[in-house]
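can u pls check wat happens w/ zinc ion
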Amino acid sequence: MLDIGFDIGGTTVKAGALKNGRVVKKAVYPTPFGDPDALIALIRSAAGELCAGEPVAALGVTVPGSVSKDGGIIDAWNIGVRDLPLKTLLMGEVAAERYIVRNDADAAAVAELHAGALKGVKTGLMLTLGTGVGGSLILNGELFTGGLGRGTEPGHAMLDRGGIKCGCGHSGCIETLCSATALKRLAEAACQKGSGMIYLKHAEGAKVDAKLAIECALAGDETALDVFSEYTDALSDAIASFVNVIDPEVIVIGGGVSGAGGFLLDILREKVPPRTFFGSCGRIAAANAGNDAGLIGAVM
Ligand SMILES: [Zn+2]
């Protein structure tokens, strides 16, 4: 028996055949934007190729958007799909024992739970710091999918009342201050002052983004360290609020900003505890389920 997983992103669809939670075969396709029929046709043909006649235990799909309790896509704007009963449609297209449709942040947390930093953890928080801020909660050793089955959106908890407008339509969400996009915005502002390493690298042709801010901060540049300090102040406030709500054993940081590695984690380990009600918090760790996390988290 095989599991077949799909990780649908804004530009590519990663597909894989898995045996006992390990990817044994992989393929990548361009994402058919705004075309649900083409998306389903792609899943059908790729699943057929990947299983090569072997029976399928679980067919799992990770989508970058909100997913209903019955596995339908509510809204996945960056693949141009909304109100699509994906799980029901797949049942008629691919023969499998189980069908799973999951939000991408939730899939990342499930992958960490099975093969990464949340293994064996009963209460955990995962934040994925990318273009936006994805987040998931592990309660009683399982992914918490919300009281009404709509999932959880920690990235859209409010951090700054009346603050920057968020993609979700509200203002001052955690996402507006803690995403890689937020770090990029701070780096751009620093660059405009016309001094410091970010400015110099930019003058040499480097793109000003979160990665450059991290690179310059790691090199010890003072302007970049100030940028990173402002960013980690906001992130630490956000994490401390979640600590006060669920008191997690482990807090896992994933996504592009987690590329800063131990440099970021050490700052958070210093800044978060004094901001919590308790004066201390659980372990802060980096995501480590690897590049196949989206596929693993789709089928587990
Ligand atoms: Zn928001």
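The chain has a mean pLDDT of 94.
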